[in-house]
Amino acid sequence: MGIQPRQGLRRSLHWVSHFLAFYLVANILTDPIRGEKTISVPLSARFPLLVRGTDLSYGLFAAVAFAVVMYFILWHTVTGYEVRAAGLNPTAARYGGINSRRTMLLSFILGGMGAGLAGACIVMGEPPTYAVFSGLGNIAGVGFDGMAVAMVGRNHPIGIIIAAVFFGGLTAGGRIMQLTAGVPLEMVRVVEGIIVLAMAVPELVRLFRFIRSQFRRVLGGRSAQ
């Protein structure tokens, strides 16, 4: 029962942040000339394109650098070890002397920094507008794609880089297939969903085995009584 309020709080904060961003885009940062988008990023702050005619910009290097920094922090520092321990088993981490609340707060901060950097890379490297549209259409859903990428990458920074390149290739290739071969873009989402489900099967099997072992332990204790 103690988990449900926390999940409800996370859902509530998700929508609070969503509508706060929507309010800022629609009322504060609106372009006075084109009301359907925000003020464009200044020329001096835009990421140059790596390949002309595409959306691939120098933001790629910023994303890779952030992943490498996270790898160093999580696997080569005491703080990173505490964050990983608290994430894997908060109870065991607490008994080991780790402040679970502090490490979870730190993980939320690091995750927020990563999400902010991802959004900035998209807006600062997306021609020709270099802005956010009023309905958040060009950035909506990116966070959920990131969750799928993290899952396929096994929550490891280096694995996430490889998974992100794979998912990016699927998305970019899907657009070309839609234009040239008439293949629906939704097929790319279907393929991504199949991949995520395939990656989730081993974890689901472990979860079912754990539940079954706990169920048998409870039944065994009752029969012994």
Q: Count of helical segments?
A: 8
| Shape label | globular
Structural class: mainly alpha
Instruction: Give the uncertain stretches in residue-range form.
Output: 1-7
Tell me the number of strands: 0
Helical fraction equals over 70%
How much of the sequence lies in strands comes to: under 5%
Rounded average pLDDT: 82
SSE order, as H and E?
HHHHHHHH
Termini, distance in Å? 27 Å
* Cα-based radius of gyration, to the nearest Å: 22 Å
Largest sheet: none
Molecular structure report:
This protein has 225 residues and is an all-alpha fold. It has a domain at 141-225. It is 71% helix and 0% strand. It has eight helices and no strands. The chain has helices at residues 3-28, 59-76, 78-88, 90-95, 100-124, 142-152, 157-180, 186-224. Helix 3 packs across helix 5. The longest helix has 39 residues, at 186-224. It is globular. It starts with a helix and ends with a helix. Residues 1-7 have low confidence and may be disordered.
Observed structural traits:
225 residues; mainly alpha; 0% strand
Could you write a compact summary of the structure shown?
The chain is 71% helix and 0% strand. The chain has 225 residues and is mainly alpha-helical.
List the helices and strands and how they pair.
Layout: H1 3-28, H2 59-76, H3 78-88, H4 90-95, H5 100-124, H6 142-152, H7 157-180, H8 186-224
